[in-house]
Every structure is written in structure tokens, then in C-alpha cells.
Task: structure prediction
Amino acid sequence: MRKLIAGDFYLEGMELSQSQGYCFEVYSPVYSAPALGLALSNLRRKIRKELSTRYLYADSEGNKNLMHEEIGGRISHDGIIVDGAVLAFSDLERILTAHEGFAIFISIRSAAE
Result:
């Protein structure tokens, strides 16, 4: 948990592993015992939802591809963390190139949203 200013806080849940993995975050504008309980509930809900959503699959050659024409993850210096694993920028480029001519929408936002 980290506090930014008096009265609010972020609650984080991170995968404990050697590599970069899943990381979940929720924000609460109020710092109190009931708010902490609500934030924990929201964090659990977010974890369940995101763990049940898969964006990528590996083909017979081991190349990662989109499952449902959408992708979500966390930006890292190595690439994008998708489905709890690093998707290298070169792999993301290969995936996007396969969809040349299609429309794309990119949204960068706080992990707490």
C-alpha cells in the first residue's frame, strides 16, 4: 500500500516471481478502515477478472498471437507485460504488422483504473 497525499491511498497486489509478472492496483480517495476493506474487495475482483482474461496464444511455432483482436497489459522496459509474461516490442511489432490496414486505438492510463 502506498499513500500519495493525506486521505488517499493505492493498494497493490504483485506476483512474487523472478520475472516481471502480474501486477494489480486499486485507488481509494479515502484512507479509513472501511475504505481499506472496500479497496481489498475491489483488488480481489480486479485480480479475478484480469486472471480470467487471456489476450495471447502461442501458435505451433511458438509465436504469440492475439486471441480476440485486443490486447491489454503493463508497459515495461523489456516490452509489454501481457498475461503475466513479457511480450517483447519486436513480437508486438510482428502482431501489429499482421493487422496492417486495420484501425487501432491505444489508451495509456493508470494501473489503478
Summary: The chain has two domains: 1-52, 54-107.
